[in-house]
TrEMBL record:
This is ABC transporter ATP-binding protein. It comes from Sphingomonas mollis. Pfam families: ABC_tran. It comes from the Bacteria. GO terms for molecular function: ATP binding. PROSITE patterns: ABC_TRANSPORTER_1, ABC_TRANSPORTER_2. Keywords: ATP-binding, Nucleotide-binding, Transport. InterPro entries: AAA+_ATPase, ABC_transporter-like_ATP-bd, ABC_transporter-like_CS, ABC_transporter_ATP-binding, P-loop_NTPase. Residues 6-235 form the ABC transporter domain. PANTHER family: ABC TRANSPORTER ATP-BINDING PROTEIN, ABC-TYPE MULTIDRUG TRANSPORT SYSTEM, ATPASE COMPONENT.
Amino acid sequence: MTEAAISIQNLSKTYAGGKRALDGVSFDVPRGQIFGLLGPNGAGKSTLINILAGLVNKTDGSASIWGFDIDAHPRNAKVSIGIVNQEILFDPFFTPIETLEIQAGLYGVPRTQRRSMELLRAVHLEDKANAYARTLSGGMKRRLMVAKAMVHSPPVLVLDEPTAGVDIQLRQQLWEYVRSLNEAGVTVVLTTHYLEEAEQLCDRIAIINHGKVVANEPTRELVGRAQEKVVVVTVDRDLDVAPDAGCFDKVVLKGNRMLEITYNKARVNAGEVLAAVTRDGLGIVDVSTREADLEDVFLNLTRAST
């Protein structure tokens, strides 16, 4: 099917008191992709997710999940999506297996079709199946939340800051599972403040700022918009102040001999930057460069729209 997994058109939300959290947001999440939804704190991401979850009423616009309008077909829309919230929400006195069984029951999954132990195995919690949930570590609780969101086998999974407070090993295990779900056909929507994760995982990224979409492009194209490049130069003598030149956008003296020079690669190249350094009579001992990444693009876009 070519229809979008999630389709959002002119979605707006104004809270009592006049705060406008979403202002005419429109974008589609293509089926079968890992889609990044990024933005600073307070940008409107959580409001949008809560509208999709049926926890917040929109003020205007429309949204559909797997072809089901959230107003016209709310039950079908809710069955089509699993959401892992930022907050860890489950009864601490139930075991993980009980948590999944109860959640499956709430979605009307027949006992013969429940996959509770299979899900616990997938998120590396099989050995904790009968432990009280309150005894689990923070990372384990996060993974239990992912399993809980998948009990009814939804075609769309939304992960809202799923790796906050999770150590590197557990984070890698979580992404391994998310990739396996995506390969099995699940569309994944991810919000995260770890921009390197978004750059590595996501096929496409939308950036929201102040309730508006400021970018929505395939990840490679979005990163390709960055024009800044950084060259780090080690020179052959101590400096009191950093030299300057017209081709530098910014220059920072790191220590006594290291210069971190930012330039616009659309205007000049690295050779011209290095030539400007040597014109001041400095010898170059070492050079390294850093290409712009998603963080650079994110900062430029969110600064530009403030």
